[in-house]
Design a protein that fits this description.
There is one protein chain. By secondary structure, this protein is mostly helical. It folds into two domains: 3-53; 61-209, no CATH class. Helices cover 73% and strands 2% of the residues. It is built from seven helices and two strands. It has a two-stranded antiparallel ribbon with strand order 1-2. Helix 1 packs across helix 3 (33-41), helix 4 packs parallel to helix 6 (145-174) and helix 6 runs antiparallel to helix 7 (180-209). The radius of gyration is 24 Å and the shape is elongated. The protein starts with a helix and ends with a helix. The relative contact order is 0.09.
Length: 210
């Protein structure tokens, strides 16, 4: 953050100016909205004669580990759930026009997908509960850098999945190749990726309001 902006904000708050007045003055001076919000957000809204700084986001090895486990378990669960459903679709709607269509359905791959989910989903669930409880006790943990980095990475990845799913759907529609098999798989990708994208997008929007 710009030290000049931070220093001005601190002095303006110390002089008794209201936050909306400070924000309006900064906007008139040409500061961008994110910079204004960040400068004001650096100081807590508590009853004290001087501006009280908020704790800065910190980075610890334990925190990085926890969030890596959380998101890795989420990715593993999502991937294997999708792969398992794809297998069931291949079994129910085989592509008879393909010479090797019998190899599309593999009980061995299904066992692997189920085994992976049995490990990954409980790990994700337990880690997610621990993280949620920790944030509820200490809201400043929402500013965790690993959490924000991995959340935005997840939004980026799932956004790419959704975009790719839409492109594939349009491509096949233009080629007249919209089969039940393809539509079901596209719907599975949209549901899984869309659910993850929607959840984390709502979470980040909620964070911006606090």
């Amino acid at each position: 953050m710009d030290s000049l902006l931070l220093d001005f904000t601190q002095k303006a708050l110390a002089a008794g100016n209201k936050r909306p007045e400070i924000a309006a003055a900064l906007r008139r001076a040409g500061w961008a909205e994110p910079d204004v919000d960040a400068a004001l957000g650096a100081f807590a809204e508590v009853d004290f004669p001087l501006p009280v700084p908020r704790p800065k986001p910190y980075l610890s090895a334990r925190e990085v580990f926890v969030y890596l486990v959380l998101f890795a378990a989420l990715y593993a669960t999502a991937y294997n759930l999708g792969a398992l459903i794809f297998q069931l679709i291949d079994h129910r709607f085989p592509d008879l026009a393909r010479a090797g269509y019998l190899r599309d359905f593999s009980p061995a791959r299904m066992r692997w997908n189920i085994s992976a989910m049995i490990v990954a989903f409980p790990l994700f669930f337990v880690t997610f509960r621990q993280v949620t409880r920790a944030i509820a006790k200490d809201p400043t943990k929402r500013n965790s850098r690993p959490r924000k980095w991995l959340t935005y990475l997840t939004l980026f990845v799932t956004g790419l999945w959704l975009a790719g799913d839409g492109v594939a759907l349009i491509y096949n529609a233009l080629g007249g190749e919209l089969t039940i098999r393809f539509l079901l798989k596209a719907a599975v990708v949209a549901l899984i990726a869309g659910s993850i994208f929607g959840f984390f997008l709502a979470d980040m929007r909620q964070e911006e309001k606090t």
